[in-house]
Amino acid sequence: MLDVNLCGVKMRNPTMLAAGVLGITASSLNRVYHHGAGAVVTKSFSLEPNMGYKNPTIVEVPYGLINAMGLSNPGVESFKEELYKIEDRIPVVASIYGSSPSEFVKVALEVQGLVDMIELNISCPHAMEGYGATIGQDPQLTFKVVEAVKEACKVPVAAKLTPNVTDIKEIALKAEEAGCDAITLINSLGPAMKIDLKTGKPILSNKFGGLSGPAIKPIAIRCVYEVYETVDVPLIGVGGITDYKDVVEFLYAGASAIQIGSAIFYHGLGIFKKVCDDLKAFMKREGFKSINKMVGLAHG
Ligand SMILES: Cc1cc2nc3c(=O)[nH]c(=O)nc-3n(C[C@H](O)[C@H](O)[C@H](O)COP(=O)(O)O)c2cc1C
C-alpha cells in the first residue's frame, strides 16, 4: 500500500532520510533504514575532504534549526568505504556536490556503481562561494551541472533545488531540460541568523546558516506545488515534515516521495515508523489504495 517506485528505484514506503542528517556513516544509514525509512540519502560529499566550519554549526530557533556545517565531509575516496558497507537491500541515494560540472561528474562516476540514485546538491545556502546555492540560483549553471552528470551517469539523477530564488519554476525547467530524472524540493532556507544576547554576537561560527524544520514547510509546499505544475519529472518533497499530515500535504502538492531531516533531532528515528503507520491508517480511512493516487490531488 505504501510502496513507491521512484525513477525505477523500488521503495517500501515514500519516506527518505534527508541529506546531511545522520548520513555520514554506513552504520547510521543502515540504522535509519531499520527504523522504517523507505530509502536513505547520504550527507553531501565532494571530491576532496572538506573540514567544514568550526563549531557552533547548529542552533535551535522557534519552529526550526539553523545550520552551517559548511558541507563537511571526508571526500569521495573515504566515503566510498562507507557506501560499500551499506546493506544491499537498502535503496541508497548519494548526495554529491562540487564547484563545476566536471567536478560533479568525477564524484558521480566514483560512486554510481554503489548507489541507486544520485542527488545533486546545488542548493546549500551556506556553502563556500562557487558551490551550493550559487549554482542552483543560476539557471544556466544548473543546466550545465545536470546535463554533464546525466551524460556521464547510468543511475537516475535528482537535482535538489534551493527556495532562495525569485522563480523556482525557471530553475526546475532548466534542470528538467538538462535531463534530470527527479527534482528534490527544498534545501534549507536562508541565509538565516541568530544572535546570542549574552555575548551580543552571532551564534554560528559562520554567522549565517540554512533554516530548516516546521518554519519552512509552507514555503516547501508552495515550491512543490508550483514545480508540479511546471515539469513532468517526479518530485521529492522535503522541509519541515514532522508527522503524517505533513506527508499527505506534500503528496497532495505533487511530491511522489518525501524526506525527513530536522524532525529526527526532536523525535528520534522512530519518526519513520510512526509516520508510515499513521499514513497507512489515514489512507485506509480515506479509501486510498496507493500513494500514487494521492500525488498532485491539490491541483486542478
Ligand atoms: C544539520 C543539517 C545538515 C544538512 N546537510 C545537508 C547536506 O549535506 N546536503 C543537503 O543537500 N542538504 C542538507 N541539509 C538540508 C536537508 O537535507 C533538508 O533539505 C532541509 O533541512 C529541510 O528539511 P527538514 O526541515 O526536514 O530538515 C541539512 C540540514 C540539516 C538540518
Strand order of the largest sheet: 3-4-7-8-9-10-13-14
CATH A-level architecture? Alpha-Beta Barrel
Radius of gyration: 18 Å
Structural class: alpha/beta
Number of domains: 1
- Number of beta-strand segments: 14
Subunit structure: Heterotetramer of 2 PyrK and 2 PyrD type B subunits.
InterPro entries: Aldolase_TIM, DHOD_1B, Dihydroorotate_DH_1, Dihydroorotate_DH_1_2, Dihydroorotate_DH_cat, Dihydroorotate_DH_CS, Dihydroorotate_DH_I
Main location: cytoplasm
Protein name: Dihydroorotate dehydrogenase
Characteristics:
33% helix; 10 helices; TIM Barrel; eight-stranded parallel barrel; 300 residues; alpha/beta; binds flavin mononucleotide
Task: Provide a compact summary of the structure.
Pathway: Pyrimidine metabolism; UMP biosynthesis via de novo pathway; orotate from (S)-dihydroorotate (NAD(+) route): step 1/1. The chain is of the alpha/beta class. The protein has 10 helices and 14 strands.
Question: What this model shows, in words?
Answer:
With 300 residues, this protein is an alpha/beta fold. The chain has one domain (4-52, 70-192, 212-294): TIM Barrel (Alpha-Beta Barrel). It is 33% helix and 19% strand. The strands form three sheets. It has an eight-stranded parallel β-barrel, surrounded by seven helices. Helix 1 links the parallel strand 3 and strand 4 (39-41). Helix 7 (217-228) runs parallel beside helix 8. The longest helix has 16 residues, at 271-286. It starts with a strand and ends in a 14-residue tail after the last helix. Residues 18-21, 43-44, 58, 65, 67, 69, 71, 95, 121, 124, 160, 187-188, 212-213, 216, 238-241, 260-263 line the site of flavin mononucleotide. Flavin mononucleotide binds at residues 18-21, 43-44, 58, 65, 67, 69, 71, 95, 121, 124, 160, 187-188, 212-213, 216, 238-241, 260-263.
